[in-house]
Amino acid sequence: MMTQKIGIGRAHSKIILIGEHSVVYGYSAIALPLKNIEVVCQVQASEAPLTINIDDPLSTAVLAALEFLDRSDQNISVKIESNVPAKRGMGSSAAVAIAAIRAVFDYFDQPLSILDLEMLANQAEIIAHENPSGLDAKTCLSDTAIKFIRNLGFSEMAIDLGACLVIADTGIHGHTREAVAKVRELEEKALPYLHHLGNLANAIEVGILAKDLSVIGQAMNRAHQELDRLGVSSPEANHLVQVAQSRGAMGAKMSGGGLGGCIIALCRNQEQAETLALELEKEGAVNTWIENL
Ligand code: MEV
């Protein structure tokens, strides 16, 4: 019996340090890959055609890849194994899309350029997020932290602070599409907040270059205030941010689209990060991760 061909694709997740929402309006953002938090996708032949659900980033990505390869008539099944919690601002939809596109191309033994991969991932993200800035797909495709400006491009950033970032999951599903719509509906009332968020991204970039944790931390605290004023935070995220700030974190903020999802807190070292992670779990975080910065 012939062994059945299996196509495999992987992708990692991401976290936004600064610039969610303001990045949609052309301000710069800084985001980090989370290389140990991964999605793996497997594609196999199947008897029946794939059911496409346009609210699902997996099927929209597979469809985009099949159409690109002119193989929409092929029956395949797709399986995902993911350590990335969905709808928590950790780039799950972009990571799932990238892993799925890679798996489809692998299944058909087709070469896949990074440009085509990013274009197809953003095509799937447009369905999931409506008007994505492209930040999520770009960070899930990057091995280093990046500074990203919509329509202009990105640059790799070397972050070497000897510090740690605690990521804490509120356990509440974020709603990026609704949050982006909420900001858009504020029209010009959103502009001062977005402008301030843009300035804070610049301040964090300067803080990273100068290895100045207090500059970065203070800018994170202010960014959280602005995101809350924009109406995209949540009571659970506000609570965890307040806990982190009052227990010695250098700074803390919500991260990602918001209305749920994760918060991030900057800590001086691993020991402080581990202690804070436990406290955040006691205060309601359903999961925590620690990233070296
Ligand atoms: C979502 O992870 C980040 C947002 O800025 C949306 C986007 O960049 O498309 C909220």
TrEMBL record:
A GO term, aspect molecular function: mevalonate kinase activity
InterPro entries named among the record's database cross-references: GHMP_kinase_C_dom (IPR013750), GHMP_kinase_C_sf (IPR036554), GHMP_kinase_N_dom (IPR006204), Mev_gal_kin (IPR006205), Ribosomal_Su5_D2-typ_SF (IPR020568), Ribsml_uS5_D2-typ_fold_subgr (IPR014721)
Pathway: Isoprenoid biosynthesis; isopentenyl diphosphate biosynthesis via mevalonate pathway; isopentenyl diphosphate from (R)-mevalonate: step 1/3
Domain GHMP kinase C-terminal: 207-284
Species the sequence originates in: Streptococcus criceti HS-6
SUPFAM superfamilies in alphabetical order: GHMP Kinase, C-terminal domain, Ribosomal protein S5 domain 2-like
GO biological process assignments: isopentenyl diphosphate biosynthetic process, mevalonate pathway
Chain ranges of the GHMP kinase N-terminal domain: 63-138
Protein name, UniProt field: Mevalonate kinase
Claim: Protein biosynthesis is one of the keywords in the record: no
Entry GO CC: cytosol
Keywords: ATP-binding, Cytoplasm, Kinase, Lipid biosynthesis, Lipid metabolism, Magnesium, Nucleotide-binding, Transferase
Gene assigned in the entry: mvk
Domain of life from the UniProt record: Bacteria
Listed EC numbers: 2.7.1.36
